[in-house]
Amino acid sequence: MVLKKIIGIDLGTDMTRVYLKGTGIILAEPSIVAFNNRTNRVVAVGSEAKRMLSRTPTHVTALRPMINGVIGDFDMAKEMVQHILKSEKLPWSWFTETIVSVPTNLTEVERKSVEDLLKEVGVSRVHLVEQPIAAALGSHLDINQPTAHLIVDIGAGTSGMAIISMNGIVVSKRLKIAGDYLNQEILKGIKEEMKLHIGEPTAEEIKIAVGAAIPQSERLEIVIRGRDAVTGLPRETVIKDTQVRYWLTRPLKLVVEDLKELIDVTPPELAGDIYKNGIYLSGGGSLLRGVDQLFKKEIGVEVHLVDEPILCVSRGTGIIAENMEAYDNLLDNFSGSKIINL
Question: What is d(CA 214, CA 291) in angstroms, rounded to the nearest whole number?
């Protein structure tokens, strides 16, 4: 038992990660809750619930309480966070202080719901930090200097892009085209072209195995199974990387256009810094083959894939947790940046 613990939480659409001060990232659980509709009780949370996704009987629903980076189902999100914070890996304490990463450009109501959620599960003090700031810190960028860093964090439910200078966001943008959106495009493509119904876990598998943003030197393919849309019977087929790349062309083009819009409204001096410093890619979506080369070709500047891009937001909340006094000015600071609405 300890008197006080400080934790950083990356409350993601796909994964929730917890950083404990003095220890590091100690928990990584899928942001999924399985719920029994007959008994009104939670059946499973995290990894166990993920195994049930698209495989449950009618009376059990496996769902994601986080939608596009924000709380979609408050009660289920509360169950999930409560389960995570009760983990044996976290010491019991009288006082718990949290740093929670949230997408950029949230409304006041959306921010308040995150604070309320954490307080309802017993957290004593809640601080919010915008994900691009946390990602920049977790990528070991020196954001304290009067020079611009452009960070693009492609998560599962949302992509956040922001230009950061002197510990603040100058301009930022949030879009719903992220990992889950790409999965949906694959689902749609297979249904329309291959006449096959598949689940989201299979779409994710296809994206990881053969997905790419630009043509690859090696030819990739994957065997998948699903339900034939015409006969209703099980069927197996082969998906090639060229097909998946075609399905992903439109959403990736939209991300590039949004990135160009963001740079277009950036002050000229900072735009010059971006040309010099390049673009920093983070988040799970940045691991899609060739996405860095696509951005370099379209934007015309160097693109850097940060170390362990999936963990950089969690690391960022952890860096703040380790030295609260030094980073106090980054917390709960949502004013002053220019927001671009979609």
Answer: 7
CA-wise closest residue to 153 among 128, 127, 171, 179: 179
In the predicted model, residues of the chain with pLDDT beneath 70 are 1, 333-342
Residue 277 lies in domain: 143-177+255-306
Instruction: Please check whether residues 154 and 222 belong to one and the same domain.
Output: no
Q: Which residues contact 126 (CB under 8 A, 6 or more apart)?
A: 98, 100, 114, 115, 118, 119
Structure tokens at 161: 């892009």
Please write the tens of the pLDDT for every residue from 211-220.
999 999 999 9
Q: Are residues 91 and 188 in the same domain?
A: no
- Tell me what pLDDT residue 1 has: 67
Q: What's the pTM value of the predicted model, to 2 decimals?
A: 0.90
Same domain assignment for residues 262 and 117: no
Give 13's contacts (C-beta < 8 A, 6+ positions apart): 31, 64, 66, 67, 68, 69, 155, 156, 157, 158, 178, 180
* Residue 65 and residue 16 share a domain: yes
Looking at residue 333, its pLDDT comes to 67
CA 35 to chain centre: 23
pLDDT of residue 61: 87
CA 336 to chain centroid, in Å, comes to 24
What the block records as the tokens of 206 is 């296809």
31-44 as b/e: b if 16+ CB within 10 A: bbbbbeeeeeebbb
Q: How far apart are CA 248 and CA 178, in angstroms?
A: 11
What's the pLDDT score for residue 53? Answer: 75
Q: Which residue type is seen at 290?
A: G
> What is the DSSP track for 251-305?
HHHHHHHHHHHHHHTS-HHHHHHHHHH-EEEESGGGGSBTHHHHHHHHH-S-EEE
Query: Residue 284 in contact with residue 154, Cβ under 8 Å?
Result: yes
Number of folded domains that form the chain: 3
Measured CA to CA in angstroms, residue 151 lies from 46, 86, 95, 267, 335 at distances of 29, 33, 34, 16, 19
Instruction: Assess whether 43 and 8 both reside in one domain.
Output: yes
Determine contact, residues 181/187, Cβ cutoff 8 Å: no
Amino acid 334: pLDDT: 62
CA contacts within 13 A on the Cβ side of 55: 9
Q: How many CB atoms lie within 10 A of CB 96?
A: 21
